[in-house]
């Protein structure tokens, strides 16, 4: 059996597979949740601090960068320059079957540039979250399949740059004072005010 050549085809196949599992009740959520809820996984965490010591050129501790401002962060031993911009709390899906169902998700345009260090495996669900009112909601795998321009997971080599939409459950992004955060494990290493 040959692997599909097109990343879009792979995403569509994954979307159909995941949508089918959700429809059959075999997969009830994303991000490792055992819950039978349709809501995204919500975690309360006290680890990490916005503007933590592993950031370079980031705002002072406790503050957040403005949307569109690049922030240098370290994830593992890889230095990245990350820019978060164009946050939309209710962005209509562009891909089927999400589009025909009228699904809307919070999205943020993200650009990641590999500055130095070893290649980094981009995993949007592990790297990004929305934080609001003491809750953190990670990026959604299933939601990312709803957008043709979603940031693709995969390796990022030295000197390379990738960009695309990171997709979240929409509720937290509607909260006044919400922030987009980038993580190194459970540690917040970069924050942007929405």
Strand content: 35-45%
Mean pLDDT: 73
Report the radius of gyration as a whole number of Å. Answer: 16 Å
- Low-confidence stretches are 1-61
CATH class: Mainly Beta
Notes on the structure:
The protein has a five-stranded antiparallel sheet with strand order 1-8-7-11-12. A five-stranded antiparallel sheet has the order 2-3-4-5-10. The radius of gyration is 16 Å and the shape is globular. Residues 1-61 have low confidence and may be disordered. By secondary structure, it is mainly beta. The chain has four helices and twelve strands. The relative contact order is 0.21. The protein has one domain (7-193): Immunoglobulin-like (Sandwich).
SSE layout:
Elements lengths: L6 H17 L18 E2 L11 E2 L13 E6 L2 E15 L11 E13 L3 E3 L1 H4 E5 L2 E4 L2 H4 L9 E3 L4 E8 L1 H4 L5 E6 L2 E7 L1
Give a quick rundown of the structure.
The protein is built from 4 helices and 12 strands, in the order αββββββαββαββαββ. The protein is globular and about 40 Å long. A 5-stranded antiparallel sheet has the order 1-8-7-11-12.
